[in-house]
Structures are given as structure tokens and as C-alpha cells.
Write a structure and sequence with these properties.
- With about 60 residues, this protein is mostly helical.
- It has a domain at about 1-35.
- It is built from 3 helices and no strands.
- The protein has helices spanning about 1-5, 10-35, 40.
- The protein is rod-shaped, with a radius of gyration of 28 Å.
- The N and C termini lie far apart (about 80 Å).
- About 0% of the residues are buried.
């Protein structure tokens, strides 16, 4: 009886679904464990002023 269940088509489909689901959760757990990447830190900054607007004019921008 058990061999007929293990060799049936629906059991193979269920096993495939469980395998894909487990893989997805493993990938999501790994991604969540990795440090976050700040994409804005990698891009050039366009908002830097050419002159300082500080109350201390000799300060570096």
C-alpha cells in the first residue's frame, strides 16, 4: 500500500512543490541574513554644493 502511494503522480507533484518551497525559504533566509546594500551610497552624489553656505565660510564643503 505505501509503495503505491510513493510512486503515484500526485505524490511526485507534492514532493516537487515541497522541494521548491523549501528552496525558496532557504534563499529568503540567506538574503535576510546578509547585510543590506545601500545603492545610493554607490551612486555619485549630485547634490553637493560648489560653495559652502555655512556660517563659517572657511569651512570645507
Amino acid at each position: 500500500m505505501f509503495e503505491s502511494i510513493l510512486t503515484s503522480e500526485w505524490y511526485s507533484v507534492l514532493a516537487g512543490f515541497v522541494a521548491i518551497n523549501t528552496s525558496m525559504y532557504v534563499i529568503l533566509a540567506i538574503i535576510k541574513a546578509l547585510p543590506k546594500i545601500d545603492v545610493r551610497a554607490l551612486l555619485p552624489r549630485r547634490y553637493e554644493r560648489s560653495e559652502t553656505r555655512s556660517i563659517y565660510p572657511d569651512a570645507k564643503p
